[in-house]
Amino acid sequence: MIPIDKVKKVIERYISLEKELSTGKVEPKLLAKKSKEYSDLKNILPSAKEYVDFEKNKKDLNNIIEDKKNDKEMISLAEKELKDAIENKEKNEKKLKIFLLPKDKDDEKNTIVEIRAGTGGLEATLFVADLFRMYEKVCSKKGWKIEIISISKSEAKGFKEVIFSVIGENIYSYLKYESGVHRVQRVPTTEAQGRGPYICSYCCYTSRSRRCRY
Questions:
Q1: What would the DSSP string read from start to end of the chain?
Q2: pLDDT above 70 covers what percent of the chain?
Q3: What are phi and psi of 171, to 5 degrees?
Q4: Do residues 184 and 195 touch, judged by C-beta distance below 8 A?
Q5: According to a count of CB atoms within 10 Å of the terminal CB, is the N or C end of the chain lower?
Q6: pLDDT tens-place string over residues 5-30
Q7: Separation between Cα atoms, residue 168 and residue 166, nearest integer Å
Q8: Confidence check: pLDDT of 151 > 80
Q9: What is the DSSP annotation of 93-114?
Q10: Domain 111-205 class in CATH
Q11: Omega into 197 within 30° of 0, i.e. cis?
């Protein structure tokens, strides 16, 4: 769990920067840096506010649920709202943990991603294709651009290997934690028997510094 005071400092920093930038008196040499920080804080602000308000909202909803004077419909709505609030808290906490990590000098750079089939034969190549399509959807949702560098297809219409670049804002900071070996256990479409595991390797690096180890 992230200390509330630490999250409150994120909100306070956003408010402070907003006031400073609105004066129009920021030194030109610092303007770009502070504007970028402000933009990053603005993106995380909704998650920070929801995280800070969670305990109070949780208490209020529990009071509604435990009050026997309330009708069943109100209690049911409060229970659903509490369930949603708990799920959102977990999502917000994950976002905030990433945001609060020490910044990598490559975080803002565009990224090259490599996904390769490992153990599992043709079924592993289908897993690679599934992962690639998943990343395509994520990038589309975030407004990032994908450019294919190379693809090696398999007989099963999967990918033995796919290499692509991702272009946009703060790409590496988001994708770098995915690097490693990924595996799936499922009923195969290319074999009569067996359920895996089917394995592929994923790695990403900036164009400046290649870091693949898988």
A1: ---HHHHHHHHHHHHHHHHHHHTT-S-HHHHHHHHHHHHHHHHHHHHHHHHHHHHHHHHHHHHHHH-TTS-HHHHHHHHHHHHHHHHHHHHHHHHHHHHHSPPPTTTTS-EEEEEEE-SSHHHHHHHHHHHHHHHHHHHHHHT-EEEEEEEEE-TTS-EEEEEEEEESSSHHHHHGGG-EEEEE----SS-SS----EEEEEEEEBTTB-----
A2: 92
A3: -65, -55
A4: no
A5: N
A6: 999 999 999 999 999 999 999 999 99
A7: 7
A8: yes
A9: HHHHHHHHSPPPTTTTS-EEEE
A10: alpha beta
A11: yes
Tokens of 188: 């195969």
Residue 119 phi/psi, 5-degree rounding, is -65, 135
Hey, what are 109's tokens? 């750079």
Question: Is residue 131 a contact partner of residue 166, using CB atoms and an 8 Å limit?
Answer: no
Q: Tokens representing 66? A: 């435990």
Task: For 157, list phi and psi in degrees, rounded to 5.
Answer: 70, 20
> Which structure tokens are listed for 110?
């565009």
Residue spans of the domains in the chain: they are 4-100, 111-205
